[in-house]
Amino acid sequence: MRNKTKWYTFLLMIMALALILGGCSEASSNMDSKGNGGTNSATTGATEQMSVSENKAVTATEGAAASSAEAPSAVGGSADGGSVGEIAAEGTGTGLNQKLIYKANLTIEAVDYDKAATALRNAIHQASGYILQFQDGQYNGEKSSTYTIKVPAAGFMDFIDRLDGIEHKKFERQISGTDVTEEYVDLQSRLKAQQVVEQRLLAFMDKATKADDLVKFSEQLATVQENIERLKGRIRYLDNNVSYSTIELRLYQPEAGADTKSVEDGLGGKMSQALNDSVDAMVTVLQGLLIFVAGALPILLLVAIIGLPIYWLRGRHRSKQSFRAHVKPPIAPTAKEDGQEEDPDQPKG
């Protein structure tokens, strides 16, 4: 009996141990399944977040690339920047919001004045510019003309390079720029402030019931509107000068052969120069004398017309007086002097 009881007890213990081991394995399997599920969910969420972040990063990168690709076309040149024309275009762009005014002073000594003037007008037309002022003339055999030209700022340097292509002996240029961004921003701020004051004064005038108040508001409004127009005019002036650059140009051609004329050295050259100077001085004196005679000729004729008859009459009168002085009348006989006899042959009386 004792052996059976022990054996039975041993079997019960084995079954109980088997049940315990089965429950533990089940719990561990459930826990593993739950843990794996949570890990998968977390991994999925992280993956989705990473994909979203990557999409945003790609979008931002594409936007930056697009912006960098569009930037050169927006400012009119590469990011390195180079010519003055590109800088002027950047000044007119909305990206940097800079206001730059460019001006150039050019001097061109042309080989053929007429051809150079024609090429200049063609260059102005091709650059979509216009002539603001023009003056020409010829002094001492030299043909010369001055221009004040306005060209678009974007083609400022291209226009100067085109002028450099004109056939010339000498080409001088001086380029300067002025940054008016600060003044432009200040003008816009003042304009907005004046416009706000204008709106307030208009509102006060609508609500005014007294004639005195209405008159005061009207005077103040007139002053504010005058300031607004002055600010707008200055802004328009700056916009025009920023959009169109100014070029002061002098085009000339010296007298033919003037560049080959040189001063000779030595005694012979100095003697020749002195002789030429003497001849020139004599010619100048003769010219002045002829001019004086031509100017005094009417007066000389008048003096001759009046003076010659007077001179002739005075000469005749003097000749008569001299003739009378030389011709004496006969002397009449006198009575017999003391101790002398009268001549019987001599008539009396």
Automatic annotation (TrEMBL):
The chain crosses the membrane at residues 289-313. Residues 98-311 form the DUF4349 domain. Residues 214-241 form a coiled coil. Pfam families: DUF4349. It comes from the Bacteria. InterPro entries: DUF4349. Residues 30-77, 323-349 are annotated as: Disordered. Residues 339-349 have a biased composition (Acidic residues). Residues 57-77 have a biased composition (Low complexity). Keywords: Coiled coil, Membrane, Signal, Transmembrane, Transmembrane helix. Residues 1-27 form the signal peptide. This is DUF4349 domain-containing protein.
